[in-house]
């Protein structure tokens, strides 16, 4: 079912090895979730569709054949970056997270999945972004915060002509309206918004694709305290 849905809805062929990796991912996630709270979703079908399939919907918004490296901000239990890495093994992934327990889980997960070429960074996103300007083809953020906030964290790391992609619920209109100033300051413009229905009534997903059109001023991102106090 999952394999067929990936094939027919997302136009991706998934091998038996990759399917086995998703099974291993699920089993380890549920096992680890008993000692560290990583997700409230534990039902097998829900994990496969609300986490794995949802992560892979990125292919509906950008051409993955042109993506060499991707940064996943605040990946938590590895979404969307690890499912994407499973299906696109040549993709170079950088994951940034500031919670040590999640970093430990991700490192162990990669060993179990026998995945290499993933850089896991234990740091605050704004700190990493200041010293890694405009180096990623794609930067993603899923369930991380309001759009003006995550734009300030992610756009500085995005290459010119690259894309920042925000995974959002269908209730995104107000956030887009609130982001006009941030886009102007940070050098981005909305390229596309892709609305997706997950299979079997598992919910709606909207992918907001923002193209980096010019260099971001080096003063961004600001400290997180300042971002929270007053977003752009």
From TrEMBL:
Key words of the record: Cytoplasm, Methyltransferase, rRNA processing, S-adenosyl-L-methionine, Transferase
Domain of life: Bacteria
EC number of this enzyme: 2.1.1.-
Annotated GO MF terms: rRNA (guanine-N7-)-methyltransferase activity
Pfam families for the chain: GidB
Subcellular location: Cytoplasm
Binding, S-adenosyl-L-methionine: 74, 79, 125-126, 142
Top class in the EC scheme: transferase
Gene Ontology, cellular component aspect: cytosol
Membership in a protein family: Belongs to the methyltransferase superfamily. RNA methyltransferase RsmG family.
Function: Specifically methylates the N7 position of a guanine in 16S rRNA.
PANTHER family: S-ADENOSYL-L-METHIONINE-DEPENDENT METHYLTRANSFERASES SUPERFAMILY PROTEIN
Record protein name field: Ribosomal RNA small subunit methyltransferase G
């Amino acid at each position: 079912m999952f394999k067929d849905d990936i094939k027919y809805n997302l136009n991706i062929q998934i091998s038996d090895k990759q399917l086995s990796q998703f099974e291993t991912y699920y089993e380890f996630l549920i096992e680890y979730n008993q000692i560290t709270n990583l997700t409230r979703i534990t039902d097998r079908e829900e994990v496969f569709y609300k986490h794995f399939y949802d992560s892979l919907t990125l292919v509906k918004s950008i051409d993955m054949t042109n993506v060499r490296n991707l940064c996943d901000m605040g990946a938590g239990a590895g979404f969307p970056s690890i499912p994407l890495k499973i299906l696109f093994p040549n993709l170079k992934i950088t994951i940034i997270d500031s919670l040590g327990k999640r970093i430990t889980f991700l490192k162990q997960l990669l060993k179990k999945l026998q995945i290499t070429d993933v850089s896991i960074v234990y740091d605050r996103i704004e700190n990493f972004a200041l010293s890694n300007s405009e180096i990623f083809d794609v930067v993603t953020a899923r369930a991380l915060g309001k759009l003006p906030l995550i734009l300030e964290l992610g756009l500085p790391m995005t290459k010119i002509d690259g894309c920042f992609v925000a995974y959002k619920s269908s209730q995104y209109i107000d956030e887009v309206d609130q982001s006009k100033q941030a886009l102007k300051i940070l050098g981005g413009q909305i390229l596309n918004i892709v609305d997706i229905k997950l299979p079997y009534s598992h919910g709606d997903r909207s992918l907001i694709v923002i193209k980096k059109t010019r260099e971001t001023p080096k003063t961004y991102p600001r400290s997180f305290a300042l971002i929270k106090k007053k977003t752009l």
